[in-house]
Structures are given as C-alpha cells and as structure tokens.
Amino acid sequence: MDEEDFIEELVNIAYQNLFAEDMPQGSWRDTPYSFHFIKPENFTMLAAPLQHKEIKMALFNMKPWKGPGPDGFPAGFLQNAWSIVGGDLCNLIQEWWDRPEEIMEANAKNIFLIPKVEQPEFVSQFRPISLCNVVYKVLTKNFGEPS
Questions:
Q1: 145 part of a folded domain
Q2: In the chain, how many domains are there?
Q3: Is this prediction's pTM over 0.85?
Q4: pLDDT-based confidence at 144, cuts 50/70/90?
C-alpha cells in the first residue's frame, strides 16, 4: 500500500467512525426538532410535474463557474449550451423526479479536504466539502413558488 492509499484509508476510517450510527437500525430517539405538517392545499403543488421553466430557472440561478463535480462540468457550461442541451436536461431531471430510485446516476460527488490549520496532522483538522454534479444540484433545488 503506497502512501496515498494509506492516507485515503485513514481518512475513510475517520469519517466512517464520525458518522457511524451507534443505535440499532429502526430504533427511535427523541429530538428537540419537529417538522411542520404539509397543508392539504400544498399536496397538489408538490405532486405536480416539474416544468421546463422551473428547471431552467434553477440552473440559471446557480453561480456559473464554481467547482465542477465528478462529471467535470460547471453550471456555466450547461447555461451557455442551454439551446443545445436544455431539452435533454429537462427530460432527464423530470425522469429522475418521477423515478427517484434512478438518481444514483447523478449522486456521485468529489470530496475534498480543506485544511483548517497551517500544517494539519489529524483528519479532524480538515473540513470536507463535496462537489456535486450540476444535474444533481438542479434536481435538488427548491422548485415552485414558496407558500
């Protein structure tokens, strides 16, 4: 195992331990947080199919040249190529909206560790950030009008 693989393994272990669930699956725990109930009049809006204009608005509201995800494309690429790729992008996002089990195709991320200190020595001295594919970001945007 070379040094790079060793460091990758250490980081993976550190974050797996950090986010490990100690409780058996299916058990409940009380929290101070609660969720608002969805008003019946909002069910129709939530169940409505996505419109192409909503998808376009979500894409064009993104900063165009932020770091790209694993696909290598920043939002600006899709914004500039909208006349060519817009219809296909909308169809893909609508398909995933209707069949969320297929979202795994877009759910890949690059994770980068940003040092919190000058010369980090421990994994805890890094802040992880994830760079998602633009299509995934568009799909997870808040669609529709706020109520």
A1: no
A2: 1
A3: no
A4: low
Residue type for position 59? L
Residue 146 lies in a domain: no
Give CA–CA dist 48/54, Å, rounded: 12
Domain containing residue 70? 3-139
φ, ψ (nearest 5 deg) of residue 127: -110, 120
Which of 109, 15, 8 shows the shortest CA–CA distance to 67?
Answer: 109
141's CB contacts (< 8 A; 6+ apart) are 58, 61
| Cα gap 18→109, rounded to integer Å | 19
Is residue 35 one of the residues assigned to a domain?
Answer: yes
Query: How confident is the model at residue 81, as a pLDDT?
Result: 97
In a domain, 144, yes or no: no
6-64: per-residue pLDDT in tens?
888 888 888 888 777 665 666 677 778 777 788 887 878 777 888 999 999 999 999 99
Residue 114, sorted as left (phi over 0), alpha (psi -120 to 50) or beta, turns out to be beta
Cα(112)–Cα(8) distance, integer angstroms: 11
